Amino acid sequence: MKRILGIFVLLVVVYLATWVMSDLLTGRQSFLSAFNQENLLRRTALFGIIGIGVAFVIITGGIDLSIGSVVCLVGVTFPWMAIESGIPPWLALTIVMGVSLVIGLSHGLLVTKMKLQPFVVTLCGLLLYRGIARGITNDQTAGFHGELKGLRWLANGEIPITGNFGLPFPVVILIIVASLAAFFLNRTIYGRYLFALGNNEEAARFSGINTDKMTILAYVICSFLAGLGGLLFVLDTNSAQPVDFGNFYELFAIAAAVLGGCSLRGGSGTIVGVIIGTALIQLLRNMITLVDWIPQNIEYAVIGAVILFGALGDEVAKRIIAARRQA
Questions:
Q1: Which of 74, 80, 218, 315 is the most exposed place for a label (fewest CB within 10 A)?
Q2: What is the pLDDT of residues 240-258, one digit of tens each?
Q3: Is the pTM above the cut of 0.85?
Q4: What is the pLDDT of residue 53?
Q5: What is the CA radius of gyration of the chain?
Q6: Cβ proximity of 76 and 138 under 8 Å
Q7: pLDDT at residue 2, as a whole number
């Protein structure tokens, strides 16, 4: 809880600093404009969904580096099937979401039954799924060409709140996903199994927990939410290029989870923390875009530094706790 409070305070500080540097010192109203705030909320919601997915895997002590490529595979093949190939949208939607579930299942089986390292399995997936997407579409952009407007409202629609401000609908989807995820982790026995697995897999197995099934479940949830995120991302952008769609999204998701209190060693993490971490990452990206004197080409350097400091903070916290227990 203290770590979540700390990251929330940091979020507020960065928000105020961005407002001062972008608006007050320049006389503009770019940061606090309704358009920018809505966009910030929408991006936080979209990345928050995939961040929640990777949190399940990290809690078990694993990692998933293929999230961006799953986003690409779903985000590119859905419009390609529904628009370019003439497949009914409902069937195309069923196929791409089914594929995301199969991907998660295959990851879990390779990790548990073949005893492969999660890093290796998902790194191969990172290359494989993007390659498949590029091959299916022949490296061409896939888009909706103005069709499926009703479905696209799920990603770019808004719920009116005031005259010039609306709540992006992806925020509603994030709230639903986050509520279900938090209930699962904190109010069900299977959620406790996941935390036990991350804390000590051997002890969890000896206590009667089917650790293989729980690991597989974590990867299935992660890939499904990555697929859902990929669908919402392409519905929001209207088109996707397989060569770069979803690039580095796994870094944003992992960084958000780590910042939000998910230990890379496994065994800890909260959904609220993941959402706050996601908001901080997106706010930092927004700051880099709006503040003139901050070079935009250092965005990935900032994300890398965030992950590094998150890992360092986790290690320091572990050592402090261990020292207190020994004392």
A1: 315
A2: 999 999 999 999 999 899 8
A3: yes
A4: 97
A5: 20
A6: no
A7: 66
pLDDT tens track for 137-194: 999 999 998 899 999 999 999 999 887 889 999 999 999 999 999 999 999 999 999 9
Which residue is it, tokens 């796994």?
250
- The ranges assigned to domains in the chain are 51-157+166-252
Q: What is the 3-state secondary structure (H, E, C) of the chain?
A: CHHHHHHHHHHHHHHHHHHHHHHHCCCCCCCCCHHHHHHHHHHHHHHHHHHHHHHHHHHCCCCCCCHHHHHHHHHHHHHHHHHHCCCCHHHHHHHHHHHHHHHHHHHHHHHHCCCCCHHHHHHHHHHHHHHHHHHHCCCCCEECCCCCHHHHHHHHCEEECCCCCEEEHHHHHHHHHHHHHHHHHHHCHHHHHHHHHHHCHHHHHHCCCCHHHHHHHHHHHHHHHHHHHHHHHHHHHCEECCCCCCCCHHHHHHHHHHHCCCCCCCCCCCHHHHHHHHHHHHHHHHHHHHCCCCCHHHHHHHHHHHHHHHHHHHHHHHHHHHHHHHC
